[in-house]
Amino acid sequence: MTRPLTIALDGRTIFDEPRRGIAKTTIAQYRALAGLRPAWRFRVFYAEGREPDPFADLPNVRCERLWMKGDRFDLWPRLRLPVATALARADLFHAVAGLAPAVPGARLVTTINDLIPLEDGRTDPAAVAWAANVRRAARRARAVLTPSAFSKARIVALLGVNPAKVHVVPWASTSLPVVPSPAALAATRARFGVPPGDRYVLHFGMTDPRKNTAGLLAAWGRLPAAARRGVRLTVVGLSDAGRAEFAARVAALPEAARGVGLFGYVSEEDVGRLLAGAAVLAYPTLYEGFGLPVLDGFAAGVAVLTGRTTSLPEVAGDAAVTVDATDPDALAGGLARLLLDDDLRAAVVRRGAERVAGFTWRRTAELTARVWEWTSGGATSAPTRP
Question: Has residue 161 got a pLDDT over 60?
Fold first, then answer.
């Protein structure tokens, strides 16, 4: 047994902004950690309380807003957060998204999910500042967590980090499987413009080119008529500007291929229902540090189409149809196979259910706890690899 630890967490992504990927995975990771190590104490510090406390039912997790009047010089992360960490006598300070104070107030551990701004060669001031912070945090950290072997290799190559301190800790699905009642499913389909009796392909869209929504729309226009018959493409998660941009692309498609619904951000409840009712989840992204929606599709019992680059083959294994996502013809071919071949679709759904069972938040917590114990000096052996 190792001594109980006190972990300080930068909780701004959890409380200060709408909860998306990093917030959801951090919440799931720490809920599992708190249950796995009940003697540990977790201090979650944040600046603005815009979201409810996701740990309110956990006695060993304390969330604390660190109020600060004004912040013209970015003093909250530079000073207020490290002082609170030191006063809490934390054994470790965990920085998510790779961002960390220069002097964190405890041994530094950090999570780096991906290095997309560096990979893209972005030169805007925000991206340059982010890259400098991530590079400094990675080099100073006692340990770095990342969700895939692909991301580990990129961290080592681009940041010059010793590979021995970079630990692969995969995520699990953040989407609870939903089994909606027929009435609830019918109501959801109606709100998203899917006629009774039709099927739909679900896509989480973005204007970011790496999410490849434009490529999927091009592929939709090339889909064989037999595959498109009685099938709609439902795109959710778009900003107002994104809806306008992609509406123009849809209008330019052949008339028979215009069965496309473009929608804005949707609730978690709607995401669960849409996944539950989809024939296919199309996730043709071009770059991912992990690719969590692939697991969400598996958990929902949906056939998944995705790319075969970066971390995606590592997550999908043989449980999805993978194609060259840069090629609209390849995308169209993969979609057609899944829509027309009932046996193939059933097979990938079955393999998806088997594969997602190996990705659990308990496993994530166990791997994280081993790294934290080793980093704090409390473990007698190095953490094992997943």
Answer: yes
**Alpha-helical segments (H) within 108-160:** 116-119, 125-140, 149-159
Give CA–CA dist 73/37, Å, rounded.
37
All domains of the chain in start order, with CATH: 6-172+360-376 (3.40.50.2000), 182-356 (3.40.50.2000)
Dig out the tokens for 323 from the structure.
Answer: 């194609």
Q: Which residues contact 112 (CB under 8 A, 6 or more apart)?
A: 97, 98, 134, 137, 138, 144, 145, 146, 151, 155
- The tokens for 308 are 């075969």
Instruction: Work out the pLDDT band at 156, boundaries 50, 70, 90.
Output: very high
Distance CA 334, CA 342 (A): 13
The H or E element spanning position 43 is strand 41-46
Tokens 């090339």 sit on residue: 222
Higher pLDDT: 18 or 28? It is: 28
| Global confidence as pTM | 0.91
How far is CA 205 from each of CA 176, 209, 285, rounded to the nearest angstrom? 21, 10, 10
- How sure is the predictor about 380, in pLDDT bands with cuts at 50, 70 and 90? very low
Given a contact cutoff of 8 angstroms between Cβ atoms, the answer to whether 371 and 142 are in contact is no
Cβ proximity of 280 and 304 under 8 Å: yes
Q: Is 310 left (phi over 0), alpha (psi -120 to 50) or beta?
A: left
CA 368 to CA 361: how far, in whole Å? 10
Position 93 pLDDT exceeds 90: yes
Residue 375: name the closest of 366, 367, 383 by CA.
383
CA separation for the pair 196, 258 (Å, rounded): 18
Question: In whole angstroms, what is the distance from residue 256 CA to residue 262 CA?
Answer: 17
One-character DSSP codes across 247-262: HHHHHTS-GGG--EEE
